Task: inverse folding
């Protein structure tokens, strides 16, 4: 009981301190040790599993390249050895410590090398321009930018745009080099009711006047009805107020706002359309599509463990029938992995599932102390 | 080692000896807290998949018990029944860039919607429901269906490579077109209450996915829809007559827990003399679900109005516990009532144990309790924060993805530190149950 410190040896009581003092210091020191060791352990685990997966991916790729003739569904019947792993009988065995034998990290999904440092901001390093990296980049931490290093051009003058602003904008669109590529402008969206393109920052106001019964067109229409101004417009019951602005009110109001809305949206319309088309073709589906929530009806604190699995499935898959016909052998290999995997295959195979899931909520609670 | 005192916090290393003494085949150390294995031959920690599975199970459930093990094995057996060829023929892997981390553009005073949408987007239960085709927008015939809009949004967030902000046009138009009487005031172009929007969205999605019945406040409504399975719990109010000690129970389902801050803060201010005394979430929960209050009540047995004690506790905990801290209150001013904001800091934990607030808290059995406590442990998932004054304020939110926190400020997504999150002036808190088992 005479030691003045705990395991970390950082928080140290004075030598002449009382035993209670010493005990308190050593408790605090132990707690500090635990925090540091948990952090270190978590990082070590992530890094080592990622490297082990990388070694396994490498050797599997070599094996599948070596035996083009064999059917892609079954494991190729060859023996391949690299510095980090051995491939034999459809199994991968690691050689030595992957932290020493493997220096980089391959993405377990796309098998491209991971970019290990952010490209901008805190801790940035220049990436090698000759390497095609996995698209998952480290997040950027830089004031004024978001996690992707993007920033936005100011939304412009608050109320209706002036002529000179529009000129400026047209110039910028003509020569895109003037704006850095990661500075984005606000897009526009189509109003589901009137199908017009509205700048996103005005969308709520537009819908207020287009769908709802607020906004100035509606109030004008109301004023008109009260004054009995619009001759062809009978006083309408409230529900039809929610419809499009009446033609009379449109005709009477000078179309300054609408015109500017339409104009500055033209540049982005085509882009937006392309995007929406794109989104129709793809669908993300979680691999584990068994009915996720049917089993537990009312008991919620005692949910069946089935749910845990759904919880754990992080890698969304995109449904895309046309693409999947052109399967590469690598892709096949990846899918067949869970079936061949056996307890014999040391740190390698099962790892991609696991290292991926640690990116989402399913990481073991232990790592979240 | 011998001179060092052993405290409960001290890490211990158990040495595993090799089966035959003197033969250094498999000498390992096991860390007592995390179960991490240190191999003396490799001179490094090893993360063997077989041992990892055991380790994670032990830490997650506290036991290697065979009962759980069987469940666990069934679980894996079932998923492997799904033919990988079917999966590979119908799916391709989403781009590694599509992480679900995107901002949502502010469509003009809609930040109160964006914060709620972000917390839905990063809710794993809702995400898995929508990504596994829980509500297919292609098969839905309802026009301007909000659930379809949600489906589209989940697709865009988790399948597209775009890192630009998202335009929630369909959500917005669904919101404008929806004709919910209770939320009529919400539908304007002005800034609104995020909590009301949360209620609106939950009810609307329940109607689109559930049994179609309107959830009535005060009733014990149960439904199997995703919203009920995710957010709804039940609470029980026990009223005990002080005269005859007869007690009656009333059970009602809840979407969220609304916790009063004002009275507690005022009481604390009087006691300590501080202007803005700091509170904890535990204080607020104690006030509502541990303490009982007095009320007048018409007792059936006594057939007269009697003094009674009323105690409310949680009967069934939801999978995602949403908590509202009532920061906006109508206060009686000199001339008229005006809405005001309560700025007291309320600290909240990353990890919340809800056992003390359930109706099972009272019957103590230490062994059972440990198990119960485990099933009542929640982890913080997202925080909705209101910044600024009541009229001119702004909403931002923090959501956790894995172990990393992100700050969502309309279209801008930034990395956030845990200290940023815990230091924020929370308005809505979303906690997710740690283990669904």
Result:
């Amino acid at each position: 009981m005479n030691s003045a410190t705990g395991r970390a040896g950082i928080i140290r009581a004075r030598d002449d301190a009382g035993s209670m003092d010493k005990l308190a210091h050593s408790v605090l020191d132990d707690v500090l040790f635990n925090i540091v060791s948990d952090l270190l352990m978590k990082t070590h685990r992530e890094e080592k599993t990622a490297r082990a997966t990388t070694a396994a991916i490498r050797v599997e790729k070599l094996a599948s390249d070596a035996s083009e003739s064999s059917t892609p569904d079954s494991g190729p019947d060859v023996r391949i050895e690299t510095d980090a792993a051995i491939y034999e009988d459809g199994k991968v065995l690691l050689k030595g410590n992957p932290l020493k034998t493997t220096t980089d990290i391959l993405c377990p999904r796309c098998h491209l090398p991971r970019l290990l440092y952010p490209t901008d901001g805190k801790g940035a390093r220049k990436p090698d321009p000759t390497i095609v990296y996995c698209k998952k980049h480290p997040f950027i931490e830089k004031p004024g930018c978001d996690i992707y290093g993007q920033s936005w051009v100011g939304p412009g003058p608050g109320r209706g745009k002036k002529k000179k602003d529009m000129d400026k904008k047209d110039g910028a669109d003509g020569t895109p080099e003037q704006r850095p590529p990661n500075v984005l402008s606000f897009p526009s969206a189509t109003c589901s009711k009137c199908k017009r393109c509205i700048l996103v920052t005005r969308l709520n106001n537009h819908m207020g006047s287009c769908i709802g019964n607020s906004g100035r067109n509606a109030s004008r229409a109301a004023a008109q009805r009260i004054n009995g101004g619009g001759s062809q417009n009978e006083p309408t019951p409230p529900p039809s107020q929610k419809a499009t602005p009446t033609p009379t009110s449109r005709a009477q109001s000078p179309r300054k706002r609408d015109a500017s809305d339409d104009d500055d949206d033209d540049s982005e319309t085509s882009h937006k359309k392309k995007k929406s088309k794109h989104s129709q073709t793809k669908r993300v589906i979680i691999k584990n599509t068994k009915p996720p929530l049917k089993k537990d009806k009312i008991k919620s604190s005692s949910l069946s463990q089935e749910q845990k699995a759904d919880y754990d499935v992080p890698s969304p898959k995109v449904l895309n029938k046309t693409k999947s016909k052109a399967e590469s052998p690598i892709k096949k290999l990846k899918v067949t992995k869970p079936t061949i995997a056996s307890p014999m295959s040391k740190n390698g195979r099962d790892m991609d599932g696991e290292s991926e899931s640690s990116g989402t909520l399913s990481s073991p609670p232990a790592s979240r102390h | 080692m011998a001179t060092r005192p052993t405290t409960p916090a001290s890490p211990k290393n158990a040495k595993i000896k090799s089966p035959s003494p003197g033969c250094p085949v498999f000498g390992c150390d096991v860390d007592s807290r995390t179960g991490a294995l240190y191999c003396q031959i490799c001179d490094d920690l090893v993360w063997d998949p077989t041992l990892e599975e055991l380790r994670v199970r032990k830490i997650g459930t506290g036991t290697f018990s065979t009962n759980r093990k069987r469940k666990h094995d069934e679980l894996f057996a079932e998923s492997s029944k799904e033919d990988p060829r079917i999966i590979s023929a119908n799916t391709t892997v989403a781009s590694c860039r599509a992480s679900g981390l995107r901002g949502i553009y502010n469509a003009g005073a809609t930040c109160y919607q964006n914060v709620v949408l972000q917390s839905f987007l990063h809710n794993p239960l809702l995400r898995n429901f929508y990504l596994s085709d829980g509500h297919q927008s292609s098969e839905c015939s309802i026009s301007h269906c909000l659930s379809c809009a949600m489906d589209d949004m989940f697709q865009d967030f988790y399948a597209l490579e775009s890192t630009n902000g998202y335009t929630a046009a369909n959500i917005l138009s669904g919101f404008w077109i929806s004709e919910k009487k209770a939320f009529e005031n919400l539908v304007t172009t002005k800034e609104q209450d995020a909590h009301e929007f949360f209620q609106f969205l939950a009810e609307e999605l329940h109607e689109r996915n559930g049994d179609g019945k309107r959830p009535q406040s005060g009733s014990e409504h149960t439904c199997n829809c995703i919203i009920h399975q995710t957010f709804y719990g039940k609470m029980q109010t026990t009223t005990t007559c002080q005269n005859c000690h007869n007690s009656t129970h009333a059970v009602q389902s809840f979407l969220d827990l609304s916790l009063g801050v004002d009275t507690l803060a005022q009481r604390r201010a009087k006691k300590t003399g501080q202007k803005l005394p700091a509170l904890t979430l535990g204080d607020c929960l104690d006030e509502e679900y541990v303490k009982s209050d007095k009320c007048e009540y018409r007792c059936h047995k006594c057939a007269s109005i009697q003094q009674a004690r009323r105690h409310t506790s949680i009967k069934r905990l939801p999978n995602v516990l949403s908590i509202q801290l009532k920061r906006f209150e109508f206060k009686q001013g000199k001339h008229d009532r005006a809405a005001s904001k309560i700025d007291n800091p309320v600290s909240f934990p990353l990890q919340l144990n809800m056992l003390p607030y359930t109706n099972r808290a009272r019957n103590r059995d230490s062994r059972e309790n440990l198990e119960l406590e485990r099933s009542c442990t929640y982890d913080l998932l997202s925080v909705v924060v209101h910044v600024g004054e009541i009229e001119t304020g702004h909403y931002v939110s923090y959501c956790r993805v894995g172990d990393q926190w992100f700050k969502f400020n309309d279209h801008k997504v930034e990395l956030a530190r845990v200290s940023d999150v815990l230091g924020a002036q929370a308005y809505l808190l979303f906690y997710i149950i740690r283990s669904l088992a």
